[in-house]
Amino acid sequence: MSAMLVEPATPIEVRTSTRRRKTATAFWQDDRVVVVLPSWMRPPQSDAMVENLVRRVLAQRPNRHASDDDLAERAALLAETYLSGTLPRSIRWVANQRQRWGSCSLASRDIRVSDRLRTVPDWVLDAVLVHELAHLDEPSHSPRFHDLAARYPRMAEADTFLQGFSLGLEHGSSFAAKAWSA
User: What CATH number does the domain located at 68-172 have?
Assistant: First the structure.
């Protein structure tokens, strides 16, 4: 197989299928990329196909392997750039948040971000982070809160993106997502 521009930590599994006649596919399964090729396909055509499909799948999930530390660094930069610089006690990705994109606990000052957002563009994730960080300065969704959150220049655009993304999730799963947390 030819050299691929793949993160070293991204395992790739290549399968063949006698059911596939003309098309190939690739998708995430757990923490690996699975590529399914027609059984008749051979190198170098199969190598090129695998490389192309893996590149596409990786591009669709830019934040897939971002750590909680990466999220905290991003939040700190956003808090300093758009808000008062107030930081949460902790911030991390969570897998159990299916009805909200993010949440902010005022009592503990913890922010949780749904891991479903690992697939969105950076500017959309940034909007969710600014939204949750704004709650540290203004707990309710008051006019003051909306003024704070609106300091992020792509907030309205991100809200529109998330509404469409939510519709896609509804069609792909049984969970409906709400645009923002309370």
Answer: 3.30.2010.10
